[in-house]
Amino acid sequence: MKKVFILTIGLLLILTLVSCGTSETPEIETPEEQTPQAETLDPITLATTTSTENSGLLDEILPHFEERYNTRVNVVAVGTGQAMEMGKNGDADVLLVHAEATEIEFVEDGYGVDRHRVMYNDFVIAGPEDDPAGLKETTGSDAANALDIIKEKQALFSSRGDNSGTHMKELELWQSAGVEPAGDWYKSVGQGMGATLNFASEEKAYVLTDRATYLSMKDNLDLDIAVEGDERMFNQYGVIKVNPEKHDGINKEGADRFVEWILSDEVQDMIAEFGKDKYGQGLFVPNGE
Fold first, then answer.
1. What is the C-alpha to C-alpha distance for residues 28 and 33, in angstroms, rounded to an integer?
2. CA 16 from chain center: how many Å?
């Protein structure tokens, strides 16, 4: 009996030791400790101006958006007028353009939802290095007066002629000068900013250009800035979400996130710094709101 009792006690001790050696509860990650899944968006289509692409800005900032949201931004770089037509037709989810009055009308007509300022720079009149119309010596910063002299002297002028924001600004300045641009001296290219600058350089013509594209291409152009500083040459860029109620298939969520992103302090700082290392000045000034 005593032997049975001793054996029983021994078995109980062994079982207790085994139990203690395997009783640790595995650590379970609490919901707070789990790594959150990154939000993934369907690809979005951005209709924008050739100046934002030609300047290199989009190549600088868009990878940041694509990585954050595990998505792709399909960029269609055209003139502002064509970009807005894409929006009206439901062929884009969001617009980044620069023709303020036309943008406001786009929203008021129900094609866009909201409009926010993003950044600005300015337009300049560039021309041949020898300045055949003598603009640097006679016009100061008066852009309309410069255009009047160009017409008077029949100096070659290269126009984008594509209903872009730059073309709209050019026509506005011709109107201020009281001049109807026409004749052999006035060359309507019908292309984007980069192509128009190349044409002006080759043909030794004057041209209205946004400063950012000019600076990004300057080393390959035989053009100098002839006129700058006119307050009428202010160049504001805006972002607009296309109205999803107008067309099926608009990526509303993607457009919402894109607008939030480009107006964020982080991206506004990226815009402010863009170009400083290469050109000694920022190519755009952020003023998102």
1. 10
2. 70
pLDDT given for residue 32 in this prediction:
46
- CATH assignment of 122-233, among 3.40.50.720, 1.20.1540.10, 3.40.190.10, 3.30.1330.10: 3.40.190.10
Measured in whole angstroms, how far is the alpha carbon of residue 185 from the centre of its chain? 33
* Distance separating alpha carbons of residues 80 and 76, to the nearest angstrom: 11
The fold adopted by the segment(s) 44-121+235-286 is: D-Maltodextrin-Binding Protein; domain 2 (3.40.190)
pLDDT digits (tens, 9 = 90+) for 35-66: 445 689 999 999 999 999 999 999 999 999 99
Residue tagged 């006690």 (tokens):
9
215's tokens: 């600076």
Distance (Å, whole) CA 231 – CA 213:
19
User: Worst-scoring range by mean pLDDT, 6-10, 107-111, 170-174, 214-218?
Assistant: 6-10
Q: How far is CA 85 from CA 82, 105, 140, 214, in A?
A: 5, 13, 37, 26
| Total length of the chain | 289
> 159-195 burial string, b = 16+ CB within 10 Å, else e?
bbbbbbbbbbbbebbbebbebebeeeebbebebbbbb
CA distance 13 to 10: 5
